């Protein structure tokens, strides 16, 4: 089982829920209900919690849960980008390194778009990051096999860290 904890109830309009530390009226702090102890209290022996924006962690978490013989729960934690209080600078594509393999497009991020620059070897268009849509999560950068998707030069860490 996978529980995707984004600190919001996204499918119904980003309402608050017991997993955040503010009251519904946002006028005072409230007790946050942690998902992992709740799942363990239901008798689940194998619970793995990972950073939703760290591709390697998520993959390893899935593998660990799949090896378990009984019910296992993977909890991915990562604040919903639409309610994030931590905006990050946009990533960029180094077109000299990009081989137009299109692995980054498979992430499904709306910020990863097709550039007008073509790869001379395969004739495919290279990737480009739309800075108005990029939230700095770094997922595209983590899957790029050539390291062509580079972090912002500001020195701020990505959401994966």
TrEMBL record:
> Residues in domain 4Fe-4S ferredoxin-type?
89-119, 125-154
Asked if the record carries the keyword Aminoacyl-tRNA synthetase, the reply is: no
* Composition-biased stretches (Polar residues): 1-15
What Gene3D superfamilies would the database entry show?
3.30.70.20
Q: Does the keyword Protease apply?
A: no
The annotated region (Disordered) lies at 1-21
Classification via InterPro entries: 4Fe4S_Fe-S-bd (IPR017896), 4Fe4S_Fe_S_CS (IPR017900), PSI_iron-sulfur_center (IPR050157), THDP-binding (IPR029061), TPP_enzyme_TPP-bd (IPR011766)
Its keywords, alphabetically, are: 4Fe-4S, Iron, Iron-sulfur, Metal-binding
A Gene Ontology MF term for this entry?
A: metal ion binding
The record's annotation in PANTHER family points to: PHOTOSYSTEM I IRON-SULFUR CENTER (PTHR24960:SF79), PHOTOSYSTEM I IRON-SULFUR CENTER-RELATED (PTHR24960)
Name recorded for this polypeptide: 4Fe-4S ferredoxin-type domain-containing protein
Species this chain originates from: marine sediment metagenome
């Amino acid at each position: 089982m996978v529980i995707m904890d984004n600190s919001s109830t996204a499918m119904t309009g980003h309402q608050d829920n017991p997993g955040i530390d503010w009251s519904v009226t946002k006028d005072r702090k409230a007790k946050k209900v942690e998902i992992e102890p709740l799942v363990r209290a239901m008798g689940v022996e194998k619970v793995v919690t990972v950073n939703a924006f760290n591709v390697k962690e998520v993959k390893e978490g899935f593998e660990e849960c799949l090896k378990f013989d009984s019910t296992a729960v993977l909890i991915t934690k990562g604040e919903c980008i639409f309610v994030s209080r931590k905006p990050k600078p946009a990533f960029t594509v180094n077109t000299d390194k990009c081989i137009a393999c299109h692995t980054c497009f498979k992430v499904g991020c709306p910020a990863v778009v097709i550039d007008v620059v073509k790869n001379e070897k395969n004739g495919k268009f290279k990737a480009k990051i739309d800075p108005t849509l990029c939230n700095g999560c770094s997922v595209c950068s983590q899957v790029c096999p050539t390291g062509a998707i580079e972090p912002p030069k500001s020195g701020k860490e990505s959401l994966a860290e």
